[in-house]
Amino acid sequence: MTRGRLRNWRFALVLLWLAGAACGQGLPTAPPAEVGLSQEGLDRLTAVMQQQVDNHKVGGAVALIARHGKVAYLKGCGMRDRDAGAPMETDTIFRIASMSKPITSAAVMVLYDEGRLRLDDPISKFIPEFKNASVLTEDGSVVPAKREVTLEHLLTHTSGLTYQWNPCLGDRYSKAGITHGLLQDEGTLATKIPVLARQPLLFQPGEKWEYGLSIDVLGRVVEVASGLPFDGFLRKRLFEPLRMPDTGFFLAETQVPRLAAVYGPDGKGGLKQYGDETLGQGAAQAVEAHLVVRRDEHGRVG
């Protein structure tokens, strides 16, 4: 994979988070009482986490609480990989799925602060294919959009964009090759987002709310407004300044052993582990954080 190219254009599934990052950045630790926290309350948190593991709701969990610049609580419970017998450690790396949305939104606001974009900018300013958007009506016909989709619409999920499993537009998305992010995709933001732009919107921009691919489109806006590949912008402007070396689109070889396995309900009151098989919509409903780990041409795993 060439530098800056995103193999998974649906980036919301591939960012990684290190639960113990605060300690890795050198934050001091302190007894809970020193920072005004109740040890009894924290013990209850530990018990709840363990209960979730014992009840087969999760394979494992890590929690960190810091106050006044000091880490007062950092615990791991359960297993990082049950089949391998690997316990959950506080430096475990997790797939964060749609929690990459606030990271993307923060990138947009960095550019806003620098005056490179406005929230009322139409996205056609950055992605011309959105200029003449259309909207799907209740009777199945398509009409012109009353107004252009803006960056504010994308940030607030009021753009009219949706996901592949939407009953009204899902079939169109699938036929156009627009994936939901749980599949490996050789496309890039630059090639895939214009395809999405040519599909009708679910409703008139700004008139309803729908959780969908709006933030993915913002990833392309960041590329155009900054002149950098999306992953490069996040690394340079967010992850490196914040000292987040374990957050990114690809795992280094040394990080792979710390990656948590993904589990979902097995339908029998327990959990089953998802491997490297392609996940479809049903699996997405069970666990929204799958990432196929593969080695690219530079030896990285993504």
The structural domain count equals 2
Q: Write down the CATH topology of the largest domain.
A: Beta-lactamase
The helix/strand class is: alpha+beta
Shape assignment: globular
Top CATH class of the largest domain: Alpha Beta
The value of Rg in angstroms is 21 Å
Major sheet attributes:
3 strands, antiparallel
Segments where pLDDT lies below 50 for 5+ residues? Answer: 1-15, 278-302
CATH architecture of the largest domain, by name, is 3-Layer(aba) Sandwich
Structure description:
Helix 3 (100-113) packs parallel to helix 7 and helix 3 (100-113) crosses helix 8 (230-239). The chain has helices at 21-24, 39-54, 100-113, 151-155, 170-175, 189-197, 214-226, 230-239, 281-286, and strands at 16-18, 60-67, 70-81, 86-87, 93-95, 134-136, 142-144, 262-265, 271-274. It is an alpha+beta fold and 302 residues long. Strands 2-3-4 form a 3-stranded antiparallel beta sheet. The protein has a two-stranded antiparallel ribbon with strand order 1-5. It folds into 2 domains: 14-97 and 252-286, no CATH class; 100-237, DD-peptidase/beta-lactamase superfamily (Beta-lactamase, 3-Layer(aba) Sandwich).
Keywords, separated by commas or semicolons:
alpha+beta; Beta-lactamase; 3-stranded antiparallel β-sheet; two-stranded antiparallel sheet; 14% strand
